[in-house]
Amino acid sequence: GQQLNQSPQSMFIQEGEDVSMNCTSSSIFNTWLWYKQEPGEGPVLLIALYKAGELTSNGRLTAQFGITRKDSFLNISASIPSDVGIYFCAGKETSGSRLTFGEGTQLTVNP
Amino acid sequence: GAGVSQSPSNKVTEKGKDVELRCDPISGHTALYWYRQSLGQGLEFLIYFQGNSAPDKSGLPSDRFSAERTGGSVSTLTIQRTQQEDSAVYLCASSLRYIEAYSGNTIYFGEGSWLTVV
Questions:
Q1: What integer pLDDT is reported at residue B102 of this predicted model?
Q2: CA distance B85 to B65
Q3: Is B25 an 8 Å CB contact of chain A?
Q4: Measured between CB atoms, which of B91, B106, B112 is closest to A45?
Q5: Cβ A6–B42 below 8 Å, yes or no?
Q6: Average pLDDT taken over every residue of chain A
């Protein structure tokens, strides 16, 4: 099925470093969501974005809805070991009922 | 319940058998979604229910897959004559209503049903 282009596929960082990941789409989206998934769990919503240009923070996490409406990024500042997991972006096109997910970014944080 | 509940959490079945996966959405949520996640992959949309409207079945991979939602609440995803490529995590999610821009609606996931076809 259709998927977003999410990068990077994986990241290995040291505790305390900042992290950035992004998603791009060939379609215009009116909603961007960022999820985190830990082993054996379902995805948990981190940040929701609904307006082009919107910049939203949730603790050490910051995400932005690109002004072209075809991209979004997620930043994690001062990473800690519990940030480990798979981060997914998801977007919804202007028409239609489904969320399309990226393939995920596997984050590993070394203490 | 407090969250989306799925059962069984794990299912191992023989190739060719039928399986049923159950989802209890968050109480009051009218929209319900099924996604499939293969090992190391993103989430693949399967089907979407919104209230009494006809479901969006456009993501179902074959006619072996079907889903029902009875009484606007509990949903069952059925896979007939299972194949090994059906092995995946099947995730159910719900939202207060069809997710709309600017509305602040969010979609909440269950923990998934891990299906292994041997």
A1: 38
A2: 13
A3: no
A4: B106
A5: yes
A6: 90
- Burial of A110 (C-beta count, 10 Å sphere; 0-12/13-18/19+): exposed
Q: What is the pLDDT of residues B88-111, one digit of tens each?
A: 999 999 887 655 433 445 678 898
The residues near A74 (Cβ < 8 Å, ≥ 6 apart) are A20, A21, A22, A34, A46, A47, A61, A62, A63, A87, A89
pLDDT digits (tens, 9 = 90+) for A27-86: 888 889 999 988 777 888 899 898 999 999 999 999 999 999 999 999 999 999 999 999
Residue A49 to residue A63: CA distance in whole angstroms: 8
A36: amino acid identity, one letter:
K
The residue in chain B having the minimum alpha-carbon distance to the alpha carbon of residue A51 is B102
Q: A28 CB near a chain B CB, below 8 Å? A: no
Q: Is B4 left (phi over 0), alpha (psi -120 to 50) or beta?
A: beta
pLDDT value of residue B98: 55
Confidence of residue B13 (pLDDT cuts 50, 70, 90): very high
DSSP, collapsed to helix, strand or coil, labels residue A82 as: helix
**B110 at the A interface (CB within 8 A)?**
yes
Cα(B60)–Cα(B86) distance, integer angstroms: 12
Tell whether B102 lies on the interface with A, counting CB pairs under 8 A.
yes
Query: Using the 8-state DSSP alphabet, how is residue B9 labeled?
Result: S
